[in-house]
């Protein structure tokens, strides 16, 4: 990261609430081709989330603690605040002298932009303003939220405008919190009804919906210079496993998340 920061734009996409098992199944079955073509080896990396719900997980990620590889460590981190004795800060780690990654990137010249999705990014009250408030520029509209069947399309359109309006020599750190996977997601599954509610199948259908528009986002962020993209979930969610529904619980389907990072070359 010491070589990448400054020369590349940076994209962080959190597929909010996406389960690892569902993501992996869809990649293996060829159901998310636009994402799978960028995944190293065509597969997601299995990692552990830094939190069991959106707010906690994003606070950790914005402090440099991305999901941790699901194997014994320590694991070197891409980003870290300067901290004496840190065992996960390595030679190539981008180290910053601010409290969080967002301000650390701003300090070295990046324009930091948030395109929010779930309620913790809606700026409609003090709590929903904390995370987007870390960025120099933040966007949220009702159409970006969990109840919108076209949320990701609207977010991508916003991201395209952000990139288009940016001066050519201005490096960009773009963060997108994708709300489509989060409950309610039943409307992404053909034939499903609100009365029947959300299911593991509608969760999968929501990921297919996101994949259909992911190419536009990656094309936008690579239009000016090469980009490093980090795409991951912040936590999973339960659909009846061991009697659990939802997240903010200590279940394996919540703590186990998909992760990938890859380069997107400048558009030619």
Description:
The strands form 3 sheets. Strands 3-2-12-9-1-8-6-7 form an 8-stranded mixed sheet, sandwiched between helices. The chain has 8 helices and 12 strands. The longest helix is centred in the last third of the chain and has 22 residues. It is an alpha/beta fold. 28% of the residues lie in helices and 20% in strands.
SSE blueprint and pairings:
Blueprint: E1 9-15, H1 20-28, H2 33-36, E2 45-48, H3 54-62, E3 68-69, E4 79-81, E5 94-96, H4 101-107, E6 111-115, H5 127-130, E7 137-139, H6 151-165, E8 172-178, H7 200-221, E9 227-232, E10 238-239, E11 245-246, H8 252-255, E12 256-264
Parallel strand pairs: 1-8, 1-9, 4-5, 6-7, 6-8
Antiparallel strand pairs: 2-3, 2-12, 9-12, 10-11
Helix pairs in contact: 6-7
Concise structural overview:
By secondary structure, the chain is of the alpha/beta class.
> Which outline best applies?
globular
The stretches of 5 or more residues where confidence is low (pLDDT under 50) are: none
Strand coverage percent: 15-25%
What composes the largest sheet?
8 strands, mixed
Distance between the termini: 24 Å
Helix content: 25-40%
Note the run of SSEs as H and E.
Answer: EHHEHEEEHEHEHEHEEEHE
Physical arrangement of strands within the biggest beta sheet:
3-2-12-9-1-8-6-7
The tally of strands reads 12
Mean pLDDT: 95
Work out the radius of gyration: 18 Å
Number of helices: 8
* SS-derived structural category: alpha/beta
């Amino acid at each position: 990261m010491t070589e990448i920061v400054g020369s590349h734009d940076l994209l962080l996409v959190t597929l909010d609430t996406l389960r690892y098992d569902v993501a992996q199944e869809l990649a293996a079955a060829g159901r998310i081709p636009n994402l799978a073509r960028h995944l190293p080896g065509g597969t997601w990396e299995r990692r552990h989330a830094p939190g069991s719900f959106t707010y906690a997980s994003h606070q950790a990620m914005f402090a440099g603690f991305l999901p941790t590889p699901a194997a014994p460590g320590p694991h070197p981190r891409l980003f870290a605040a300067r901290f004496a004795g840190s065992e996960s800060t390595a030679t190539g780690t981008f180290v910053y002298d601010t409290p969080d990654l967002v301000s650390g990137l701003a300090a070295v010249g990046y324009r930091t932009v948030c395109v929010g999705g779930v309620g913790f990014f809606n700026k409609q009250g003090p709590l929903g303003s904390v995370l987007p408030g870390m960025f120099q520029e933040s966007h949220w509209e009702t159409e970006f939220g969990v109840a919108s069947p076209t949320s990701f399309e609207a977010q991508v359109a916003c991201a395209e405008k952000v990139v288009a309006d940016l001066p050519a020599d201005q490096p960009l750190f773009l963060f997108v919190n994708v709300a489509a996977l989060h409950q309610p997601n039943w409307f992404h599954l053909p034939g499903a009804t609100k009365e029947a509610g959300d299911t593991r199948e509608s969760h999968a259908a929501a990921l297919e919906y996101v994949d259909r528009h992911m190419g536009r986002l990656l094309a936008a962020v690579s239009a000016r210079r090469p980009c490093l993209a980090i795409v991951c979930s912040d936590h999973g969610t339960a659909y009846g496993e061991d009697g659990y529904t939802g997240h903010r619980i200590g279940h394996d389907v919540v703590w186990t998340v998909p992760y990938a990072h890859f380069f997107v070359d400048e558009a030619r």
